[in-house]
Specification:
5 helices; alpha/beta; 156 residues; eight-stranded mixed β-sheet; YbaK protein; 28% helix
């Protein structure tokens, strides 16, 4: 297992989760790639999108259903400050993961987390496991417990 994926697995264990990180032969960088490799719907992919809070410089992680676009105005309103795109260096520095593998857990630094309310409707969802080839299955309630994220509508 890749070191970043192993770190996610260890964090899951530390929090009492029974989720298992699995390495796939194909990449899961996009929601469509992940869904095809797993055999689930794209909507069941809990994609991780990282933004930069413009005033504070804080990292903002939005965990959204794979079919949803994220309305940045809704995130900014929930955060209380404008947000902008985050480049690859910012994402790695603030989360400890590369784009395409950002897990919802195990971040190196404090990250503000918002969870798409649309993920609640699926009995199982799949999240990135710290590496573009790593994923793990969990429930919405487990995602909420692990991240302590705020559940909000994120789609336009």
């Amino acid at each position: 297992m890749a070191p970043a994926a192993q770190r996610v697995q260890e964090k899951l264990r530390e929090t009492g989760s029974s989720c298992e990180v699995v390495m796939m032969a194909t990449t899961a960088r996009t929601s469509a790639e992940a869904a095809a490799a797993i055999g689930c719907s794209v909507a069941q992919i809990a994609k991780s999108l990282v933004f930069r809070a413009k005033s504070s410089g804080r990292a903002v992680l939005v965990i959204a259903s794979g079919t949803n676009r994220v309305d940045e105005r809704k995130i900014a309103a929930a955060l209380g400050e404008p947000i902008g795109k985050a480049d690859a260096e910012f994402v790695r520095d603030k989360t400890g993961y590369a784009i395409g593998g950002v897990a919802p857990v195990g971040h190196d630094r404090g990250v503000r987390i918002f969870i798409d309310e649309d993920l609640r409707q699926y009995p199982d969802i799949w999240a990135a496991g710290g590496h573009p080839h790593a994923v793990f299955r969990l429930t919405f309630d487990e995602l909420l417990r692990l991240t302590q994220g705020a559940v909000i509508p994120v789609a336009p």
